[in-house]
Input
Amino acid sequence: MKGSFGVLVYPNEWEWTNPPMKPGVEYKTTERWNWKPVYVKRITVNSIKATSGKDMGIPWISNNQGAIPISLTGLLKHGNQYRPIPVHGYSDSGAPILTCDIETDDCSDGQHHIYLKLLHDSFDYANSSAEFVIKYIKE
Output
């Protein structure tokens, strides 16, 4: 056993109950979805560079790994405020100003993407960052 975080299942293969969640690192967890192991990855976007109505694509895994996303959670950091994605409340109507979606089709760059959709012109995203945790299985 590796601390209280992981279990050695096969030689040199760990399954994590509480992965350390370093950005960009894939962890195989002890969780199962339809009897398949669940993988988890943290994706960090240090600067949101997009304008209203545009998508910002964030690659998270190569197409050839057969990944099927089962969960995506995101957090927007703006100054010292943290808000879950989709973000509500910055527009007068209370409608979402930022949403996210996952693309699993084969992309020309060979990666699957998480897309941030910025929906409101009056919000300055320049000093914002985002964190995502995506859970997925492999075919």
